[in-house]
TrEMBL record:
It comes from Streptomyces acidicola. The keyword Protease applies. The keyword Transmembrane helix applies. This is CPBP family intramembrane metalloprotease. One of its GO terms (molecular function) is endopeptidase activity. Residues 138-225 form the CAAX prenyl protease 2/Lysostaphin resistance protein A-like domain. GO terms for biological process: CAAX-box protein maturation; proteolysis. Signal peptide: none annotated. Keywords: Hydrolase, Membrane, Metalloprotease, Protease, Transmembrane, Transmembrane helix. The chain crosses the membrane at residues 25-43, 55-75, 96-116, 136-157, 169-192, 212-236. It holds the Pfam family Rce1-like.
């Protein structure tokens, strides 16, 4: 391994005897797929305003993550620490705030490149942005569901279970494979490269710190900026 990459890809000490494995991957992702299908059917048939669909979409995204993680965690291990639910240092959490801003910029560039190459300019986050722009109550509801709950739920299943379990195969497999699955879970659209960037950053953070909390902070900051920046721009131009 190239010496400049070794510190980045190094792994924090883990409980190898209780690290999640393929049973947790299969059970967790299967549960996620079932919940995803149920949510998709509900949203397709529900008569909701764009803002309400955005808020409910965030809430259900959180439910999908928490539900899938619960299935995986209760299967065999039944403890949280092996899934990275452990204390992180204040320094790593503070650094994660800055990394969240960096990840937002990088993911915006990646999404723009994807749109330029693929010619896909659909805004699949319109409902979320509509909810964030609906007034203070709507914004606070969006913040709780989209900046806090959804990042926790998604990080638990995609990093706590998937990236952790794949860690036994080394850094490249753990980081790239988990980020790819996370990206594909968001669909083939302009959000795919955004999710991939976030997935790579957070899988690396998990390896470095052994905790999912820094990644949750990065994820939350990215979501907050993705929802808030369009609102701020709209207010500034009116």
């Amino acid at each position: 391994m190239h010496e400049t990459l070794r510190p980045v890809l190094a792994e924090a000490p883990v409980e190898r005897t209780s690290r999640p494995g393929w049973p947790e991957i299969v059970a967790g992702l299967a549960a996620y797929a079932v919940l995803f299908a149920a949510v998709a059917v509900y949203l397709r048939h529900a008569d909701l305003s764009a803002a309400m669909e955005g808020v409910i979409g965030f809430v259900l995204s959180a439910v999908m993550g928490f539900g899938a993680f619960a299935v995986a965690a209760l299967l065999r291990i039944r403890r949280l620490a092996p899934f990275g639910v452990r204390r992180a240092s204040g320094g790593s959490l503070l650094a994660a705030v800055g990394l969240g801003v960096v990840a937002f910029v990088l993911s915006a560039i990646a999404s723009a490149l994807y749109q330029a190459v693929a010619g896909d300019h659909q805004n699949v986050q319109a409902g979320y942005q509509e909810a964030a722009a609906g007034g203070i109550l709507w914004y606070l509801t969006t913040a709780v569901s989209g900046f806090i709950a959804t990042p926790i739920g998604e990080e638990l299943i995609f990093r706590g279970v998937l990236a952790n379990a794949l860690g036994r195969y080394g850094a490249w497999v753990s980081v790239l494979a988990s980020a790819t699955v996370f990206a594909l879970a968001h669909g083939i659209n302009p959000v795919l490269p955004v999710a991939f960037v976030i997935g790579v950053v957070n899988a690396l953070l998990l390896r470095r710190t052994g905790s999912v909390w820094p990644g949750i902070v990065v994820h939350g900051v990215n979501n907050a900026l993705a929802m808030s920046v369009p609102v701020i721009v709209a207010l500034a131009t009116t």
